C-alpha cells in the first residue's frame, strides 16, 4: 500500500485551475521529485496535500486515511510535514525557538529533548547557534533550521518545497546530502526542486508538472534519460 495517494486532484484559485487531474503516489521510505517550470503547480500540490489550500475534486489519502478537508495540524498528527518554499522562519526568534515550533503538539518533554538532540546531531552547525536569531543566519543555515523544524514532529513524510533556492553550490550539495540522511531515517520525501539533475540523483521516482497537469512520470533513471526532460530541465 502507498503511504501517500493523490488521485485526480483538481485545485483552483478563484476558479482559475492550478492543478488538473493530478496523481502522485509515494511509498514508505521513498524519495519522489516533482519537476516543473515556474507556475506549473508544484507548491500548490504540496499545499493541497497538507490542507493549506482546498481541493475541488479528487482523492488524497495518507496511510489509508482520507486527507481531504483536513488541516495542517491534523496532517502533522498523521505524520506529514511541509517545509515551505522561502523557509518561513520567524526572523527575530532564535534558532531554538524556531525549531521548537515544529513540535508544538508534543507535550512529552523527554521526547522533545531527545528529538532536539537528534536534530543537533543531524545539523551540528545549529547546535552552536541555538540562541542566535534566525535573521542573523546564512541562507543555508536558515534552510537547515526550516528542515529541522519540520523534522521535530518525526514525520513519516516530509514535503520539501525548493530547499536549495538561493543557496550557494556547496550548500546545495549539503542539502542533497541531508535529504539522503533524512531518507535513511525511514522518512519518505516529496522534493520540489529547480535543480532537476541533483533532485533526480537523490530520488527514486519523479513526476513532471506542466500547466497543472502531470506530463511525465517515471523512475529517476528514466527521467534523467528522457530527451524532453534533458532538454527542458537538465540544460540539454
Ligand atoms: P514556482 O516554481 O514559481 O514556485 P509552482 O510550480 O510552485 O511555481 P504554484 O505556486 O503552485 O507553482 O502556482 C501554480 C499557479 O497557481 C500559478 O499560476 C500561480 O500564479 C497560481 N497561484 C498560486 N498561489 C495562488 C494564490 N494564492 N492565489 C491565486 N493564484 C495562485
Helix-and-strand structural type? alpha/beta
Query: What would CATH call the class of the largest domain?
Result: Alpha Beta
Helical residue percent band: 25-40%
Distance between the termini: 37 Å
* Strand order of the biggest β-sheet: 6-7-8-3-9-10
Give the H and E element order: EEEHEEHEHHHHEHEHEEHH
CATH homologous superfamily assignment of the largest domain: P-loop containing nucleotide triphosphate hydrolases
> The CATH topology of the largest domain is what?
Rossmann fold
Measured by DSSP, the beta-strand proportion falls in 25-35%
User: Number of folding domains?
Assistant: 2
Helix and strand arrangement:
Blueprint: E1 4-13, E2 16-26, E3 31-36, H1 42-49, E4 57-62, E5 65-66, H2 72-78, E6 80-83, H3 95-101, H4 109-122, H5 124-127, H6 139-151, E7 157-161, H7 169-184, E8 188-192, H8 196-201, E9 205-210, E10 213-219, H9 220-225, H10 227-233
Parallel strand pairs: 3-8, 3-9, 6-7, 7-8
Antiparallel strand pairs: 1-2, 1-4, 4-5, 9-10
Helix pairs in contact: 3-6
This protein binds adenosine-5'-triphosphate.
Pfam families: ABC_tran (PF00005)
Protein name: Branched-chain amino acid transport system ATP-binding protein
Organism: Ottowia thiooxydans
